[in-house]
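Researcher: Good morning. I'm working through a list of sequences from a screen, and I'd like to move beyond sequence-only analysis. For each chain I'm collecting a predicted structure so we can compare shapes side by side. This is the next one on the list. No need for commentary yet; just the structure.
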Amino acid sequence: MKKAVEKEADNAIKWYWRAKLWKRVFSRWIQFMALALAAAAGIVPIVIQLSGAKWDSGLLASLLVGLAAAVLGMDKAFGFSSGWTRYVLTATTMTKQLHDFRMDWISLMATADPTPTTTQQSAMIQRAKDFIAAIQAMILQETKDWATDFQNNMAQMEKDIKNQLDALKAQVEKAEQDRKDAEKPGAIELTVTNADKTDGYKFDVSMDGKGGKAKAPVSNSKVWAKTDVNPGQYVVEVTAASKGVVVNDRKVAHVRPGETEKVSITLSLQP
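Model: Good morning. Structure tokens for this chain:
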């Protein structure tokens, strides 16, 4: 009976010591990689700047930090470090229980008769039952801890992935909205302050830029307006006649998305 319960406990202890080996290897490797990547995120940009290279050190630092977070996330998701800790604690506690059982068994044998009585045998059997029950309880508790840890990690990972997807979706939507806003047409409103002093109270206006061109004559008005103008930079030129002499002037208009750019020109008319 003693050998049977000792063998079962010893097998369980050996299993935990063997199983923790790979968890320890992965845990230490991941911790090393995370530390190295985090350190590199701080050091590499400085080295790049000192070397005079034209790389984007900010993006590189962000990449290294992201990789460090990724390996730590992998450790948490697969439970390498937490599993290693649980296995070591479980195996150590089992070993203590085995030592206590052996000492108690020696004590029971020392006080027993050469041919143990029924009471003495019952005490030995109960001690063996208590010992094996304790070993099985530890295995069960460790399994429950593993299951809880696994479920929590999966739930957290799903939550993190959902948050990242939501953030990415919001980023894409914002980029699309920014693109639409950047392409939203604007307008130009030109005022020729002394147009009423030109010959016939009229002038010609031309607009030229990468977003398009336009020409128009204006009569009996000081204002010319153009809508649906693509955002960008335009040269607005006004040409008119003053006492038979052609005069002109130009200004640069900066059309912003969804806004009206107001331009004012005063022609140098003949006295």
